[in-house]
């Protein structure tokens, strides 16, 4: 921060000043769509929970998270390409979890047997990191929390909040210069272009579809959404951007209604997906739902997922790509031979990593350089099965649980078991099911102080932040070619340190932006 370490952060502001800042945040949020739906009154929204100030974040750690994104996208491409390997691992998981992972896997296998009609497959990913404070590196080392391959959220709202924080500084709403306090520098609050970049990736998928089909008339993207979604405007922002910048129309449907509102027509060997009411042909099925058991309350939703998977539309993501984001796969990647098998990078990934690092090509081996950067983001993750490492981990889970988090193969927050709760949790379930979990070392985040504005109330205290970097991909499963590999900017989420998890929609955390220091 400007002026050195002794300077207080966030800056001390008077009650009156804070009330004014809060008012600006609320009004700007409502005026610009930094909003969650209220969930109570139909058609009304409330400002999204946000930090009052951007949180200080190490510039070098931030750059490293951006630098490795394309490399991670490539690694997941290699994993999905190696279908045999992936299916073997996933079918193990399916045995522990037949009603969810197992059923998704069945859908994939069934569509494979029937002969998939679309070889292009897309993904919007997000790799999440916490800065590990206990490291030799100045500014701390980013450590990966998880790699998400389905329904990643807040790409829309993240752009909005970095714009808002930037505005509050630029227009001196914080009123710091008047009080003679060290000013925040707006140039150190970069604006995340995630909204524009994620929309562009979806547009690329759409364009690839219509180019191959040779027709453009009446094609549209389908957003598969959850019923009653409070974070719908984060999705709407993508929908509006798709239309405004790319002229692409979108529709929104829940899995519940997909079967009745959509139909399929056969054209040669292709099962074209059509939106009944508009007769639009669906180019891309973009999932903002379907990642957890609660998205499939009845057979209707399962049947819809199969119906979509078995269509000619490009799936973002396919069932297989979704499952490649399992925490078990992340654990397996920390195994050196497995990592080496999948750590292959395209030329453009290697070149870009150098540009981000601002280094010349002549001095370093680019592949080694990127490999090391990615390996630096790993913490130890153990299986809990009956392998040698699994048995070692079982001992660790009981001897020193305070160092670990236990994770099932689930997404969306609220599913993990922390620290001292691990032993009693494990003893409460049959030992034969332990292999369904992974045991991960806890990352020790650096603490900052900040203020969180949620539902009109300001909460002050120690906070910890998690940085997510978005990625966009488009692969051809037949040829193994990659048509898109993008680094799509970032999201910062922040929570009060007293809460183990930081889900914004789940009510634990809020959206933040980075103040690079
Ligand atoms: P989900 O897919 O449900 O989001 P995550 O792996 O992201 O699961 O875990 C949820 C939250 O738990 C994270 O956002 C983070 O706050 C916390 N968490 C997960 N893994 C770790 C870890 N290794 N160290 C510290 N906190 C963690
Ligand atoms: Mg996740
Ligand atoms: Mg997460």
UniProtKB/TrEMBL annotation:
GO molecular function, one term: glutathione binding
Signal peptide segment: none
Glutathione synthase substrate-binding domain ranges (all copies): 220-324
Source taxon at top rank: Eukaryota
Binding, Mg(2+): 146, 148, 411
Cofactor: Mg(2+)
Top EC category: ligase
Pathway: Sulfur metabolism; glutathione biosynthesis; glutathione from L-cysteine and L-glutamate: step 2/2
Catalytic activity: gamma-L-glutamyl-L-cysteine + glycine + ATP = glutathione + ADP + phosphate + H(+)
Keywords: ATP-binding, Glutathione biosynthesis, Ligase, Magnesium, Metal-binding, Nucleotide-binding
Cofactor note: Binds 1 Mg(2+) ion per subunit.
Residues that, per the record, bind substrate: 126, 150-153, 229-231, 235, 288-291, 493, 504-505
EC number assigned by the record: 6.3.2.3
UniProt similarity note: Belongs to the eukaryotic GSH synthase family.
Name used for this protein in its record: Glutathione synthetase
Gene that this polypeptide is encoded by: GSH2
